[in-house]
Structure formats: structure tokens, C-alpha cells
Amino acid sequence: MGTKPGWCSRPPRIGDIITCLYPNDPKGRLRPCLVLETRAGSSGGYAVRVAYGTSNLNKEKRSQIDLIIESSTDINECGIAVPTRFDLEHTAVIPWEPPDCECWHGEYSPKLGALPLERQIDCAHKIAAIQNKKGGV
Asked: Given CB 3.0 to 4.6 Å as the disulfide criterion, which of 1, 4, 6, 18 pairs with 110?
């Protein structure tokens, strides 16, 4: 068994944007995802709950539900290249290690950037609305 990269021992924080292979992604490629939760595993590793990122903004149907990053300032802070929508209704828990999380070419960590504080607050309100709609806590 190979040695894990050093970043595996430094889990991302809530609100970080990371690159990972999202489960059942039809394109099967690394994409930006929003970290919603970090969990410590019993064997010393970590897992993250993430929201899928897509360049399909679908603003007419999804802007009230999902987090859409489109201002150039927010795009830069998040470390993404294009306006991106993070689907807050559909999330997945994945291991914080290769091959599930990987670095984009030339990067030393899957962490790209982080949501600005205002966007973190917006995200928290949208997640609370989704949970209330589902009858969750």
C-alpha cells in the first residue's frame, strides 16, 4: 500500500472548495465541490460531505435553492475558473484521499479556495431551508 499525500492529514474546512470525483458523475472527472462537513474516521483518516459543482447555473430553477458563485471576486476567492452552481440538495460523503479527492494538474492540494464569509452565510440559510422543507433538524 502506497503512502498517502501529506494533504490527507489536513482536512478541509466547511466552506472550502475542493476537487474530487463526485460519485456517479457521468463525466467521471475531477470537479469543484463545496465542503459542507468534515468527519474524522476511526482509522485516522477523514471524509468530507460535499455538494456537486457545475458550470450549468440553471438560475431560473435553482437560484433560490443552490449556491451560485458568479462574481469575479467570489470566483477568485473560491479558486474556480468559471461561474459555478453548487447543488445543495444532493450531497455525497467521500474519503479525503486519492483517488476520491485529487489535485488538479500543477496543484499540491485538492483545496482550491474558500467561500467568502457572505457566501458562507447565504449557503447556511439555503441549507437550513432545505432541511426545514424535508422536515430535518
From this structure: 18
